[in-house]
Design brief:
The complex is a heterodimer. Chain A is α+β, with helices and mostly antiparallel strands. Helix content of chain A is about 45%, strand content about 20%. In chain A, about 45% of the residues are buried. Chain B is α/β, with parallel strands linked by helices. Classes of the chains: A alpha+beta, B alpha/beta. Chains A and B meet through β1, β2, β3, α2 and α5 of A and α9 and α13 of B.
Chain lengths: ~130, ~400
Amino acid sequence: MAYSKKLIDHYENPRNVGSMDKESKEVGTGLVGAPACGDVMKLQIKVNDSGIIEDAKFKTFGCGSAIASSSLITEWVKGKKIDQASEIKNTEIANHLALPPVKIHCSVLAEDAIKAAIADYKDKNKK
Amino acid sequence: MQNVNNIYFDYQATTPVDPRVLEKMIPYFSDIYGNPHSRNHSFGWFAEEAVEVARENVAKIIGANPKEIIFTSGATESNNLAIKGLAEFYGDKKNHIITCVTEHKCVLESCRYLSEKKDFDITYLPVKPDGLIDLNVLESHISEKTLMVSIMGVHNEIGVIQPLKEIGKICRDKGVFFHSDCAQAIGKIELDVEEMNLDLMSISGHKIYAPKGVGALYIRRKPRVRISAIMSGGGQERGMRSGTLSPALCVGLGEACNIYSKEMKKENEKITKLKNRLLNGIRNSCSDIYLNGSETHRVPGNLNLSFAYIEGESLMMGIKNLAVSSGSACTSASLEPSYVLKALGVEEELAHTSLRIGLGRFTTENDVDSAVKQIVSEVKRLRSLSPLWEMAQEGVDLSKIKWASH
């Protein structure tokens, strides 16, 4: 299977790998997927008082497309307001990385991961 | 196109043609080009003679008589012919076949065809966690309607060796035909059709350093085993397989068997050393590496490994100049992990982390050292990316987490 240059770049040089303190109120954590399905993504965002995502980190168990999708979405959400970040669509990720049809679910998972992270952050910071 | 920097570790998928095999074949493409079935001139006779020498070489490596060998296009055809041909011939008397869930697709599909179109009953034996069948379970399924048992010799995906001699004894005692797909077994383990009471055996060329497109089927003559041909034609190969033989391909298969007859032991010793070097090299630097299939009843050239906490395809992408095969079928259209590993009871999460590394005649120590270096470095890198590895290091029990399946 021939992958795009962008995908391979994200796989070989993933951006924003790491973990943040999941107990912190500023941090939202999304953990999606299942080991039995072959993909698990953990995506974390650190949000400041103005509701802007200051930092994002990920760790992914999955194929190269899953790793690239999660790496890409951490780049995209940084500096965005959480409401903007939640509007990122899986198709944008799939198009950007030129995912083959059989790998589209990886981009869906990345979308789910950011939504889950935002939901976790909002849940922690309910007024 | 040359694979300059790439190293081949997929000897179960196919093997290169041994230069000694190729050399023997070459004259039969243009110099000795007669039709081996032409009985009335020397062109035919020379071609026929070469085919018969090849047949003797094939027979010799399994302890058979040359008259019991017919040439085919490969093990897929041999398996189809053995199973469907036997069923066609004896089907009105006995209509039950016993095989195993981890058999090659061509065996399983042939059985499925018989079950759907010819009203056969098929028993698919389970395997134990080591990949071997349970002989008691096999015996318990044999009834007076059982026509044949078809169990492969050496497994293509996990390399385990089934107890052919014991299976053969049970079959002979019960009066049931015994067929074995030995595509991966020839040259890897000692095979003897008498000692193992084999009635039919499938052989492949391209797994043993002969070309693709040729194989053979052994069919016992004493006591005689009958099969119906599945192709109509000129009645070549004793009426069981019509179509003009390719003397070059037959010669190739014969010479490949001839080489193994002389060199099997030495080659197995060499590959065992390389396999140990590879496995120990990886395990010395990485924890949580699991070997799938029996540790002891396996051929040395097959390492099917699970690299816990790393998905197999991402590992393959990382070691891109090592040609290995994904144990999980994630690269194909299906995202399901291998049916073979599932049958062994390998948990799905571990099945997703599996690769098959195949070693063979032309693997060198340098190849192995280079592979160890690349695999270890990628395993460490991908584990540093893996949330599962992180959780496992923190002592989280992954089986206790409620995962959202998708």
